[in-house]
Write a structure and sequence with these properties.
The complex is a heterodimer.
Chain A: E1 11-15, H1 30-45, E2 50-56, E3 64-74, E4 90-102, H2 111-126, E5 134-138, H3 142-150, E6 154-155, E7 157-158, E8 164-168, H4 169-176
Parallel strand pairs in A: 4-5
Antiparallel strand pairs in A: 1-2, 2-3, 3-4, 5-8, 6-8
Helix pairs in contact in A: 2-4
Chain B: H1 2-19, E1 21-22, H2 27-41, H3 46-66
The chains are: A alpha+beta, B mainly alpha.
């Protein structure tokens, strides 16, 4: 697919709504496409995840998105803790970036980085109302792992093909000037 | 033969995924881990700072357009 020229000053990031056009969204990674098309609406209704979509001005077409959730990794993920009654408790407080994707036609124009920085702004806003340690994510593949490592995201899991990574909240607050 | 290797690899990856654990055992250790990460990195690096500056520039340009 030939890339479409994107002027980032025309990009608006809005909460997912019934008017968001998602059927044509394709970032090339099945789980990321599938979430937006099949699960984002229901996850939003259940308040499990909040999804934010990038649009060019007033177009309903979603050209990129991210989804956030509070809390990650239950105590069961900690070594030797799988039989404790606490297994469903949160092991450490964090905001979890569950999904981030850019439509294939708008790649390599800085939209993914723009979305990530918007995530940072939103994380800084959440930090004014609730305490947590970091922004976390689970990297989908080697390319995304290398990208997040280049930004100083730290791997906090062991033996995972798709490593869990975090970025300290204090560094986010430094960046956003909060 | 290829199929046997593929099956083995699928099982191996499934096992690795199942056995994946975190690098800390308690919430306190998690806090220490995050603090250590922050101290070792020495704050946001140049690449992420450049990304942030670009984001702020775009936001300023958008605001200027709107007025």
């Amino acid at each position: 697919m030939p890339p479409k020229q994107l002027d980032l000053t025309k990009v608006e990031i809005k909460p997912f709504s019934k008017d968001t056009a998602v059927n044509q969204f394709c970032c090339g990674k099945t789980p990321i496409d599938r979430f937006l098309k099949n699960k984002a609406k229901k996850a939003g209704q259940r308040c499990e995840l909040r999804t934010f979509c990038a649009h060019v001005e007033r177009s309903p077409l979603c050209i990129g998105y991210y989804a956030l959730q509070i809390g990650t990794d239950s105590v069961a993920d900690l070594p030797g803790a799988d039989k404790t009654y606490l297994r469903n408790y949160i092991a450490f407080p964090a905001v979890h970036l569950a999904y981030l994707g850019v439509h294939q036609e708008y790649r390599r124009q800085g939209l993914g980085q723009y979305l990530l920085m918007d995530v940072f702004s939103r994380v800084a806003a959440i930090a004014k109302h609730a305490g947590f340690y970091a922004l976390t994510l689970q990297s989908l593949d080697d390319d995304s792992t290398a990208f997040y490592k280049s930004l100083n995201f730290a791997v906090y899991s062991e033996n995972l093909k798709q490593p869990k990574m975090l970025y300290p909240l204090t560094d986010i607050l430094t960046l956003t000037g909060e | 033969m290829t199929s046997a290797i593929e099956n083995f690899m699928r099982w191996w990856n499934w096992l690795a995924q199942k056995n994946g654990k975190l690098k800390f055992r308690t919430q306190r250790e998690a806090a220490e881990f995050v603090r250590r990460v922050q101290n070792e990195s020495g704050g946001p690096n140049a690449k992420i700072q450049a990304m942030r500056e670009r984001y702020e520039e775009i936001r300023r340009a958008r605001a200027a357009k709107a007025t």
